[in-house]
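Regression check, AFP case 324:
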Amino acid sequence: MRQLAPVLRQDGVNSNLMSLIQTLLTACKEISFHVSQGDLAGMLGATADENIQGEQQKKLDVISNQLIKDVLLESGVVKAIASEEEDTTVAGDENGDYIVSFDPLDGSSNTDINSLIGTIFSVMKAPKDIAANDPALFLQKGRAQVAAGYVLYGPSTMLALTTGNGVRFFTLDKTHGEFLETHSNVQVPKDTKEFAINMSNQRHWQPAMQHYIADCIKGETGPLAKNYNMRWIAAMVGDVHRVLCRGGIFTYPQDTKNPNKPYKLRLLYEAMPMAMLVEQAGGLASTGYENILDIQPSEIHQRVAVILGSKNEVETCLSYHQKA
Ligand code: AFP
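Current build output:
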């Protein structure tokens, strides 16, 4: 099994980007260690604080954010970072080549039940003409990503990574502290019979999603002529990992539960990197009306509707949106 560096070199990744990815992964290895210690390390549970988005922060959210932020800002190749846990962007090296957006610990409420969580990240080139302290650095479409991925802290710690040349999985060998390539050329099957959606929000969805899911549930005798299964991990990182491994459709659609918050998932550090991974693996990622990688962001904590996964199934779901 190959280590990360030779794989990246083979994919034509330049030395600065390679060093950025390896630096980020040193923090992820430390997060993996803290996560695996669980209650023994006294790091589970909530803090007294909320993040900018009004969500209660877990102790591990804060620790993970600090670890990643510190290593990236000291790397010398990062001009600025944007994190789910930071109010605004944080400036790094004015001459840094890259900007990094990340969700340090996606699905952190799953720490309470010892279930899947992960770090999601997106890397873009830093525009030279915008200052390191200007959030406008980050207002680039997802197509501009030069690398995207996640580290999943599960029974094993896994990295899913794309640098624009397909998707590879690596597994952390905890005896040597190295990520080793365990799957190259990850492909999302085009068809699926598995959907992932928080069904408890059903009454709040728009008609297009109501009709699509209602037809899925009708099974073999319904218009989609298939018996579907349902899965919901409550951490996008876990649900997307399943989609990359065996196909499926994952969606967090628009809803009317809270009129001030029609969408749940964040564009820069959740939807965009996952969309790049899914597209690089032959799948599709849309809001229902627009490809996620073509959205022009207007602010760093922007939220969007997400429908992603197996190409043919996502297209079926999109056809309900077109009809609506
Ligand atoms: P956090 O990053 O705040 O832990 O939220 C996780 C998440 O945004 C996403 O990963 C899940 O798909 C979604 O929330 C689950 O939300 P609900 O199950 O509460 O609807």
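Comparison notes: The helical segments are 4-10, 15-37, 59-73, 207-218, 236-246, 267-280, 311-323. The chain has two domains: 4-183, 194-323. No diff flagged against the previous build.
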